[in-house]
Amino acid sequence: MQGSAITNTYGGNIQCQGPTLTVTPYLNRTKSWGLPYEYSYPDPVYDLSDLNDDGRLDNPGDVLFFKDTRTGQKDNHNWNLGLSVQATIPLDQGLQRRCKEAVDTQLAIQQQALANKRLDFEISRLKHCGELMMKGIRFAKGSPYEKVCRDVRVYRPVPHTHSIPVTTSGTSSAP
């Protein structure tokens, strides 16, 4: 793997680079040959005759003919199969620990924000469904939206009053 380590991004500007293990299999094929490519070459056949049996060639260096001799030259094929393994490990574990703590905090913030939005939605649904029910407005039975307000109940508060006895206070005059 060339370049920097793999970066994980969690929102809130938090990015962590952790340990990375890269495994890369490969298969290569090569073909090679020699140039100039020759299947055969003319091989001279020399005159080795000693007709007078004196132990010396009668015509030294004379070529009688050329015979075709194979060179043995051929293409070479090669297959390579292998596996490349690379491990990248950050050396500062303190940075890794703090980054993981920041990730945990960021995820908790995101979960709380989601819970707050869910609560806002449920309270809004409750308010709107309740107000509409008090006005006698409801979804028709069998409507796909009937279930939106199905669990909402409207209770009219019972008037709660107390009578407070009225007392009159006497007036007094100053001497």
Entry keywords:
alpha+beta; two-stranded antiparallel ribbon; 6 strands; rod-shaped
Taking the sheet with the most strands, its summary is: 2 strands, antiparallel
Strand content: 25-35%
How many helices in DSSP terms? 1
| Cα end-to-end separation | 106 Å
Principal-axes geometry comes out as rod-shaped
Stretches with pLDDT under 50, minimum 5 residues: none
Descriptive account of the structure:
By secondary structure, the chain is an alpha+beta fold. It has a domain of 41 residues. The chain is 24% helix and 27% strand. It contains 1 helix and 6 strands; from the N terminus they run E-E-E-E-E-E-H. A two-stranded antiparallel ribbon has the order 1-2. A two-stranded antiparallel ribbon has the order 3-6. It is rod-shaped and about 175 Å long. The mean pLDDT is 86.
